[in-house]
């Protein structure tokens, strides 16, 4: 009779050694995404009725290690850890082709572990036909750094000035670098604060104090080694942005003056048109008065000459 409990089989796996070479892969996934833990044994077809697939946490100190279990073609949740309930799926359309990969939904920091896939075939006797190890590493991109520094002042050369560089919503903890682009020299930060947030991501704030020079070009780098991302902010670029804002302000002032002049011209034209209209109306009324005075005496003369 076949043992039904997942626990019995998991405890007995060290006895069953008909195993192919063990695979180990690293999967990097972003926080909140779905991660696919790969476990593929290509080149062979399997009957689900004679197949058992176990995904477990590869750590003997874990009190609950069962991530997902498939027995005789059906999911078995009897010993699945609560943490993974309703968060795991096998790729059913690929199982018969030897793809036992597991889809882990909405990953978080607590899922960052080493997992083990064990595939058993139950024909005349139970044997392990495939195993794989997968290390799940999580990551999140940091936001574009915000670099703030002193306002340029020709008299500030030689004085100590402070720069600050901040970035948010990244994972894991970043590396922060300061570079003086004038001579490509690396500078040591004066202070570095890394804050862990409730959602598991980090924010970073680094400050740098240096002696001011007339040609300062300071750059701050935020490195996420796991994602191989390195984003930066440049002090010179910040000044250029301020310069572009000034240019935009000047353009707005010019356009405002142009609109004001156009408005004045429009008012002058309107007044001229009104003046022309008033003159025309006045002349038209005057001509009517003249014609009336000419007609009135003629009518009086006719009345005098007419017989009584």
From TrEMBL:
Protein name per its UniProtKB record: Ig-like domain-containing protein
Record's keyword terms, sorted: Immunoglobulin domain, Membrane, Signal, Transmembrane, Transmembrane helix
GO annotation (BP), single: T cell receptor signaling pathway
Family annotation (Pfam families): C2-set_3, V-set
The organism's taxonomic lineage, starting at the top: Eukaryota, Metazoa, Chordata, Craniata, Vertebrata
Domain Ig-like, residue spans: 32-135, 145-232
Compartment(s) where it occurs, according to its Swiss-Prot or TrEMBL record: Membrane
GO molecular function: signaling receptor binding
Species the sequence originates in: Anser cygnoides
SUPFAM superfamilies: Immunoglobulin
Regions that span the bilayer: 261-282
The organism's place on the tree of life at top rank: Eukaryota
Keyword Coiled coil among UniProt keywords: no
Any Gene Ontology CC annotation: external side of plasma membrane
Signal peptide stretch: 1-21
Xref: InterPro entries: BTN3A2-like_Ig-C, Ig-like_dom, Ig-like_dom_sf, Ig-like_fold, Ig_sub, Ig_V-set, IgSF_BTN/MOG
